[in-house]
Amino acid sequence: xxxxxxxxxxxxxxxxxxxxxxxxxxxxxxxxxxxxxxxxxxxxxxxxxxxxxxxxxxxxxxxxxxxxxxxxxxxxxxxxxxxxxxxxxxxxxxxxxxxxxxxxxxxxxxxxxxxxxxxxxxxxxxxxxxxxxxxxxxxxxxxxxxxxxxxxxxxxxxxxxxxxxxxxxxxxxxxxxxxxxxxxxxxxxxxxxxxxxxxxxxxxxxxxxxxxxxxxxxxxxxxxxxxxxxxxxxxxxxxxxxxxxxxxxxxxxxxxxxxxxxxxxxxxxxxxxxxxxxxxxxxxxxxxxxxxxxxxxxxxxxxxxxxxxxxxxxxxxxxxxxxxxxxxxxxxxxxxxxxxxxxxxxxxxxxxxxxxxxxxxxxxxxxxxxxxxxxxxxxxxxxxxxxxxxxxx
Amino acid sequence: xxxxxxxxxxxxxxxxxxxxxxxxxxxxxxxxxxxxxxxxxxxxxxxxxxxxxxxxxxxxxxxxxxxxxxxxxxxxxxxxxxxxxxxxxxxxxxxxxxxxxxxxxxxxxxxxxxxxxxxxxxxxxxxxxxxxxxxxxxxxxxxxxxxxxxxxxxxxxxxxxxxxxxxxxxxxxxxxxxxxxxxxxxxxxxxxxxxxxxxxxxxxxxxxxxxxxxxxxxxxxxxxxxxxxxxxxxxxxxxxxxxxxxxxxxxxxxxxxxxxxxxxxxxxxxxxxxxxxxxxxxxxxxxxxxxxxxxxxxxxxxxxxxxxxxxxxxxxxxxxxxxxxxxxxxxxxxxxxxxxxxxxxxxxxxxxxxxxxxxxxxxxxxxxxxxxxxxxxxxxxxxxxxxxxxxxxxxxxxxxxxxxxxxxxxxxxxxxxxxxxxxxxxxxxxxxxxxxxxx
Lengths: 393, 439
Fold this sequence. Notes:
Chain A has 2 domains: 27-73 and 262-390, no CATH class; 82-251, no CATH class. Chain A has a 6-stranded mixed β-barrel, surrounded by 4 helices. Chain A has 13 helices and 10 strands. Chain A is an alpha+beta fold. The longest helix of chain A is centred in the last third of the chain and has 43 residues, at 253-295. The model of chain A is unreliable at 1-8 (pLDDT under 50). In chain A, strand 6 (177-181) and strand 7 form a beta hairpin. In chain A, helix 2 (28-39) packs across helix 3, helix 3 packs antiparallel against helix 9 and helix 4 (97-105) packs antiparallel against helix 8. Chain B has 2 domains: 2-46 and 305-436, no CATH class; 55-296, no CATH class. Chain B has 12 helices and 18 strands. The longest helix of chain B has 42 residues, at 298-339. The mean pLDDT of chain B is 85. Classes of the chains: A alpha+beta, B alpha+beta. At the A-B interface, helix 3, strand 3, helix 6, strand 10 and helix 9 of A face helix 2, strand 2, helix 8 and helix 10 of B.
């Protein structure tokens, strides 16, 4: 089934000669490859399309598989700190502790110092007062439900249950109140209510600097949201422990293990799905290419009838398949990167970083699948006499 | 005649039909497995998210303030209100009791360790480890082993302890039995006192056996954890519980979940009450436990939704990719199968068959292939989904029966769509060229 009889492609000998004179000199082998692609462009295009789709899907999957884990890890940081640094035996941390922590972990890591004191209300009730940096705490603890963050001096953030004790009334009509710590009083204006469902509800939060001038107590705890894999966090913990020998540096097991658990399951599911999808697209390529090569058994027979060696014929079909694989991989790779970036944007609201390191794998995989799909039908055809194929049987 | 042509086509070209059939089967299998996994992934990840621990806490309604810094309770122990332990099994009687994975009561008391000059005050927390309870006809076990999965108990030789079975023998290292008088000691406290599993510990003048070293990465590392009954005995208040941690499977919050039930119309209220929002489960816990206040633990409850929706969204997109890839594979296989049969088309047309008749034969064949491949693929996909569920989540992935007709319909549609272009071209092809074997 050659296309030489298709009307549109017929050229007069003069035109052919003209073309040959003007076209750069290419070897017979190259010309055969080129002509095969041009003359049977429809089937070649469908094979190429299958190749591109498969390569695109494989690229997108590999990109996502690598990147999604990093993306999910950042999502998991919304659970808050995974490392806690506590000064030993109720002491305070050294004044430069926060700076040292940040120097180890980099400024991008969130570290929030906390200082605690037990103060007394006007009617003699004990209540825990915490000094924090509101801007940092707000970034670290996304789950805190806060009606209004303090902005003016001497404003406090009051836990739901503490509010009932120190400043009864309904928001926003809370009354200013007074607390005393070791005989020193402070007048605080409630800014907003804090609701977490945990210990924070029983506490009052005020600004770190105001806390320190009032009580003279420096931070005793630093909560850190360390990024990275479990191993990376483990390294950070060891570094921090070396840096701050007077304190306990410990992982928040609840957060670390929960994250590891969910992440492992997600990764395994993603891996299984990605494998299935890549296999299916390889199957798609296989089905298309086998049909394509099988269709050209006439070309194969003519080449053999004209005396082409087995090596040349095999080489021809293999080169064709490899060229298809390379072109498909290149186009597919860029489309796949686009798809991965799009998925990242839609699902995680942050673009997936293109990973060019997967390109060699996509390229090798595409060429391998293409070669495999070419070899299968050729093996079948080799056993058949060219004459039988040419007779159309 | 028509059935015979179709029948003979399958009989004589068994190999080619098998190839197309395999392509359809594999495509449908992948699609089925992916849809099954994607629809079930929310539920599965929701369960995995329970490893973050309880997402609800129940406290007495007239609770006083906690005065606690760094795990050390500064409040007099008998102060404040308590819940009644006898009310706890009622948690299994709430509307969403199937969604409640477990619960653990907590009763912290301040105790004196040792005697004489070395005595010191520490917090002892009474709780359930793996307590067998019953509600109505239902028997169940609950406790920190379910709600606090990150708690680890290790032994003198460093290995992890196993749950206690029956009576504890002296010196055995395990999770204490809930009826026993054995205690766990937090790892930092143990290091400070240089105690280990199998040692005796003097608490308020009485000797107790340490059955293991507890590591939690939180305040409990400086405390003693004991069976609830023991803590109640020390406090002198039988049946008293300070707070209850409840771990429940919930639906991510949405616009309805955050509304105040008091302002809802009856229909909206019913819908809210019958959705497993963390808010409505809290409301139902308050209903069954008298004088209680249930609150979501926002650190756990609020973040679940984001993680869950990200993973679900991701799986949805990947499922689309899988569906697309399998649709393409099926169409490619069908197109190839039909393309190879142009000579046949030419012959039929030369014998006077119309375009419609020829197309009908091809579509009938495609339909048969789609049905057979669809059924085989659905079964294979169901097995695949099961295997994925078992190996990744240690639980079954349920295949909804309603999925079957949908999958078959998709298979038929994709097969038709894949064949349509090839059939159109085959039919339009001039029989003369086809019969001469050209083109």
